[in-house]
Amino acid sequence: MRRSVVLCLLWIGVRCAAGQPLSDHDPYKMGRLESMNGRYVLERTKRIVLAENLTFISRITGVVFLPDGQFVIVSGDAAPEVIVYNTEGQQERVLGSKGRGPYQYESVAGVAVYRGNVVVFDGGGLKFIEYRPTGEPVREITGFTEGVDRFHFMASGQILMYRKGGGTDGYLGLYDPVRKLFVHSFGTRTNIHKLLMMYAYSGGLAVRNDTAYYASPSEPVLYYVNLRTGAEGAIPIEDPDFSVPALENRTYSFKEIRTILFNVSRVRGVFALQDALIVQVEHGRWEEGRRTVLHVLVNNQWVDAFQIDGALRERLGEAAWTAWGNGLYFISQQEDDTGDVMRVLERWELRGY
User: Fold this and answer.
1) How far apart are the C-alpha atoms of 51 and 18, rounded to whole Å?
2) Could you tell me the maximum CA-CA distance found in the chain, to the nearest angstrom?
3) Does the predicted model carry a pTM greater than 0.70?
């Protein structure tokens, strides 16, 4: 109860203008992280405080960039919205609205860009909705029976989607919206996989050229498939600390589920940069403090990793992440020097020696 009250008070206090300066006492102003083997650094090259000049931002569940550098933030909770921001962090417009009618959404479970347009998945209505960045609706793609956590539109118009339902078919599927069917399916859904998918942003999906890289949340393996030739492969993630329990095929109590979810390792994201792939892995027991490891893959070889723990991990742990160009972006909740809560977009670039 106390936590709920505190969170409500924090949300009420959020009203920040773009460009508002951050605190001089901010412990994250170093803006530079060195990799474990010393071959790479992540350097912060951009930091923008997000304005709320049109609408209040609630829990952010996704962010994606448009070709012109504008970006789109989606909120997937009880007040779902799809918000277009300009490059300076000002809100330009809200796409669509909450509801059950045409081009409306009950909840927003993911966002992507296709041919310059914004596409979201309505987790309540189980449909894709496409909008122009200027706000006009384009089309809906319907007929789905399970939710989607991440998705990517191929140049052909087919949709590669990371499915989060409890079925027995593959968790990664390639869907043809013209024929209205899945033409390919990849990956095996296990009991622990299904449980971890209760987490937002569990597992991962990234596409580079014709190759899709994907990961189950429950195993330290990065899979890939060339969608043009059909060639498949797997690259073990070199992480000796990765550990998940084996689950029986039975009903678990809420207490058991909570213990499992708070104490396992899990893959949380796969991000394609221009020169590398980043695989985000969460580790550690909840009461001991969790830590994030960012594994760097170049030319299908693991070359280094970044370990993030302590206060910095707490800031990044629940942030919305995305990749664009050679930058890794995330939006997190921070405080300014007066104690007001604000949303901050940061760009970190991967650089090698």
Assistant:
1) 5
2) 56
3) yes
